Design the sequence.
């Protein structure tokens, strides 16, 4: 856009108001006035929909959903939006749908929710299930079962910001672009940041390798040391069975520029597109504190990462042993 | 009285009277920001303006020289007055002007100015750059620090001049430590100024891009002038991002204006804008659409802590300032 508003060419400052497109603005104004006429109707429909949604939310999720919403610590500016674009008005609906899945579809059980400290925290979890439902369920858990209720913040792929709608929706519900500067700033703001160190490797595991952690990234550990943030390890049991993948077609994935292309036979059955209603069990471990030099060699950082990974793996193993079945 | 002093380089310059601040030279003084700055500074010190344009209603004690900064006459201005600070606002950004004219004015003219600043041992140089030098990009961190690379020219060639000016000022900062060089990079300036963000918000129906609603930072022109004043008077140096009130989504800003807006799909909007541009029916080149598509926000921590700058105008006043005439 214009740079300083201070162009030195006299031509520019005198020409720009006149050269504004007369045809363009007239056409736009006409569409604008048509839109204005339709506006009262649209608003009535919207209000009706909003009212129905509200009653549906309280009936399904209980009265305390609204009460919890009031208690979430958010860092809103004078504008009612957080600096990253989180808008509680939007987050409410995203959380309500996630909470519905959490309570009624996957009937999640949560263990050790008391382990989550109230200040800034890095939540490190195993990633599973072909599509990131586990992220949504963890978001609902942090809101419904943890004291005080929190809006979870997670990092999303950079390319998602170039997609229409997605680039608007993600920031409004608290997702931010995955660059280290953003993570640092969120933690300084005292947020709960969810990280899946396995990334795409973890989510696209085939069924025979379920609940075996893949390689962890090191970035989260450097961040935790640098910002002195406690790490809470999380094991999510139940996600691996929601979609049963028997293999990955790498060639097609590469052609479609997707991280993986899983083969999921249940997609062929009508209704199989929905995830299987497995029972989710979520285990929060005790917070771990790390010290040292965040800029250290990979080998030193790896040892610390291994500690977290081993903790999550043993929590997973215990969780699988403890459950009586996949669906109940 | 002023006295002649010999400088290490062997030339004579007029030194200001001890105990009194010398004059401040403002290039591009006839722009809306320049006029406003002159009206504030002339109460405390002598203000000398340099601009090609006329300054019709200038305060009486402001000296205005109607010269082109590329001409040698500029040197006479430096010779004639004891100058303690130079504020460079004279940057042309007229997307319709030829790129040769642009380049010669912005880069060659600025290089000339830097030469004189070094030659006459001016103590202070303030350059008004812009946060647009970082460029809107999908992979931008939410808040860009002063160290972020200047990638604004990647998709938008017209801004490369400004990046070059910014870079020239940066190298001057390192090469001439005796001059306190300040580079200000304000976010979108709103007000009576005729720049793209203000012109965009002045449209009777504001087009937006369907599905895109980036967070936007804006700043009132008055606050920008205040930041320049601070940079001139305080003894600071370096690059400062300057931001106004808390950031808002673009849709909320449009809502503050009470004007209808209409969402347009990106590819359609882009091709229409390109057509309109080639028919000379719009002042917005198509690459500027990226500003209402991706985020380009800055971290203004340095300006707040070192420069002591704080925006005084509320978000409502800032946005509604586009409709004011003054």
Sequence:
């Amino acid at each position: 856009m214009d740079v300083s508003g201070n162009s030195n060419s006299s031509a520019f400052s005198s020409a720009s108001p006149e050269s504004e497109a007369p045809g363009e603005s007239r056409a736009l104004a006409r569409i604008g006035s048509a839109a204005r006429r339709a506006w009262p109707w649209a608003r009535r429909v919207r209000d009706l929909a909003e009212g129905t949604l509200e009653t549906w939310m309280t009936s399904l999720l209980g009265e305390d959903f609204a009460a919890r919403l009031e208690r979430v610590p958010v860092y809103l500016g004078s504008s009612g939006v957080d600096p990253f674009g989180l808008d509680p008005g939007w987050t409410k609906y995203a959380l309500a749908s996630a909470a519905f899945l959490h309570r009624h579809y996957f009937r999640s059980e949560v263990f050790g929710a008391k382990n989550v400290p109230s200040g800034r925290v890095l939540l490190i979890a195993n990633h599973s299930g072909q599509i990131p439902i586990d992220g949504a369920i963890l978001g609902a858990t942090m809101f419904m079962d943890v004291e005080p209720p929190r809006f979870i913040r997670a990092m999303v792929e950079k390319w998602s910001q170039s997609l229409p709608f997605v680039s608007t929706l993600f920031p409004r519900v608290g997702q931010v672009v995955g660059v280290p500067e953003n993570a640092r700033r969120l933690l300084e703001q005292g947020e709960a940041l969810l990280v899946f160190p396995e990334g795409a490797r973890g989510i696209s595991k085939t069924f025979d390798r379920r609940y075996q952690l893949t390689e962890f990234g090191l970035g989260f550990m450097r961040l935790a040391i640098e910002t002195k943030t406690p790490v809470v390890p999380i094991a999510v049991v139940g996600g691996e069975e929601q979609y049963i993948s028997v293999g990955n077609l790498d060639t097609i994935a590469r052609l479609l520029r997707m991280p993986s292309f899983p083969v999921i036979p249940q997609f062929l059955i009508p209704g199989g597109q929905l995830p299987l209603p497995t029972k989710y069990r979520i285990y929060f471990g005790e917070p771990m504190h790390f010290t040292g030099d965040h800029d250290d060699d990979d080998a030193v950082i790896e040892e610390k990462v291994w500690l977290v990974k081993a903790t999550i793996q043993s929590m997973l193993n215990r969780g699988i042993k403890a459950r009586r079945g996949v669906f109940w | 009285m002023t006295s002649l002093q010999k400088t290490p380089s062997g030339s004579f310059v007029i030194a200001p009277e001890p105990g009194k601040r010398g004059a401040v030279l403002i290039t591009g003084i006839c722009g809306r920001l320049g006029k406003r700055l002159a009206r504030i500074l002339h109460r405390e010190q002598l203000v000398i303006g340099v601009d090609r344009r006329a300054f019709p209603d200038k305060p009486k004690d402001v000296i205005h020289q109607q010269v082109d900064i590329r001409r040698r006459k500029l040197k006479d201005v430096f010779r004639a007055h004891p100058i303690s600070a130079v504020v460079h606002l004279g940057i042309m950004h007229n997307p319709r002007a030829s790129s040769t004219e642009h380049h010669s004015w912005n880069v060659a003219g600025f290089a000339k100015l830097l030469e004189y600043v070094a030659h006459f041992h001016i103590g202070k140089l303030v350059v008004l750059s812009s946060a647009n030098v970082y460029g809107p990009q999908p992979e931008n961190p939410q808040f860009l620090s002063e160290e972020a690379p200047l990638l604004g020219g990647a998709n938008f060639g017209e801004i490369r001049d400004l990046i070059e000016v910014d870079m020239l000022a940066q190298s001057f900062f390192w090469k001439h430590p005796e001059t306190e060089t300040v580079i200000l990079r304000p976010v979108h300036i709103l007000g009576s100024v005729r720049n793209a963000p203000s012109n965009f918000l002045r449209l009777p129906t504001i087009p937006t891009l369907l599905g895109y609603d980036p967070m936007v930072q804006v700043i009132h022109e008055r606050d920008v002038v205040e930041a320049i004043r601070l940079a001139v008077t305080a003894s600071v140096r370096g690059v400062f991002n300057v931001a106004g009130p808390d950031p808002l989504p673009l849709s909320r800003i449009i809502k503050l204006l009470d004007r209808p807006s209409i969402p347009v799909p990106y590819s359609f909007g882009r091709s229409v804008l390109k057509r309109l541009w080639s028919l000379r029916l719009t002042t917005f080149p198509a690459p500027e659409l990226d500003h209402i598509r991706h985020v380009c926000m800055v971290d203004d921590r340095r300006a707040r802590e070192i420069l002591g700058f704080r925006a005084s105008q509320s978000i409502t006043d800032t946005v509604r300032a586009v409709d004011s005439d003054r």
